Amino acid sequence: MKAIALTRYLPIENPESLLDVTLAKPIPQGRDILVEIKAIAVNPVDCKVRAPKETVEKAPRVLGWDAAGVVQAVGPDVSRFKVGDKVFYAGDITRPGSNSEFQLVDERIVGNMPATLSFEQAAALPLTAITAWEALFDRLQVPTPPHALSHVTPRKSILIIGGAGGVGSIAIQLAAKVAGLTVIATASRPESAQWVRELGAHQVVNHFGDMAAELKERGFDNVDYVLILNDTDRHFPAAAAAIAPQGTICTIVENSAPLPINLLTAKSAGFVWEFMFTRSMFQTADMQEQGNLLDEVARLVDSKIIHTTVTQVLSPINAANLRQAHAALEAGHVIGKIVLKDF
């Protein structure tokens, strides 16, 4: 089968950073399904894993954690899917990724693809939707329907730092349209500010400015929740200043230096992490929750409550186009998601 892989971890400008290769087609066992991949999306985690380091792989390593495709075969213990089903998923970071014609994935972390979307539209959703959903509803414990907060007066509020990126683009929609929160999203450029407003953000502030002052200008002395989606080290002090007493901050970005957690002490505020690969990495008892939430995301999409966030589609799926997508992400100005379709 065709695949894009690496053996050395090189700068993306190097043509050998991602290579077109041919690999053996895998065979499903246990609860694995074999998916014929029609479209993939690119995420910051791809760039992080591929980032330059001294390691040399003995065999080609396939990256990629966002895909939509068709079930071609199933393992003997599979009960949720059958051959021919259209599916979408983010996969498991401990296993070969989705940058290949065929991929094995545990059925428990797979969802039925939204019926109203194309493969490329669906491929933009899984990793960001899982991350945003888990951050909001599992880590921050924002109530979900039928207990959503749209009826609360005044409505509870969330500050989403990095609103125009992939996760932010879904988190804004889920927070505003599903949970009923008042959403303040950050954006630093006119085009990204317009994007987050179109997604449902009620207010926009600049994460490179004085966020506390901008929040006060918009009538917010503090917020009930904060979701940090870029540069935790830079934004944690502002998040700590903004969070309400007994509120909670969640981040998806690793810190590079110790964080001043003591800033939360007097407020009895909480701080939690979201890493969407936790369930598959540790084979947790609730792994099936990722498949369930993807099915719910598909329902929300098909009901026109939320929508896909794809903003650019490249074709075909090959090393050259994938390097282009990685380079765009590393430049730091991507709005929404970049998708590749068709081998």
TrEMBL record:
The protein in question is named Zinc-type alcohol dehydrogenase-like protein
Pfam families, sorted? ADH_N (PF08240), ADH_zinc_N_2 (PF13602)
User: Of which family is this protein a member?
Assistant: Belongs to the zinc-containing alcohol dehydrogenase family. Quinone oxidoreductase subfamily.
Its lineage opens with: Bacteria, Pseudomonadati, Pseudomonadota, Betaproteobacteria, Burkholderiales
Q: Does the keyword NADP apply?
A: yes
* Matches recorded under InterPro entries: ADH-like_N, ADH_Zn_typ-1, ER, GroES-like_sf, NAD(P)-bd_dom_sf, Zinc-ADH_QOR/CCCR
NCBIfam families assigned: adh_fam_1
Q: Which residues form the Enoyl reductase (ER) domain?
A: 16-340
Q: Does the keyword Transmembrane apply?
A: no
Q: Which domain of life is it from?
A: Bacteria
Give UniProt keywords alphabetically.
Answer: Metal-binding, NADP, Oxidoreductase, Zinc
Coiled coil spans = none
What CDD domains has UniProt attached to this entry?
A: AL_MDR
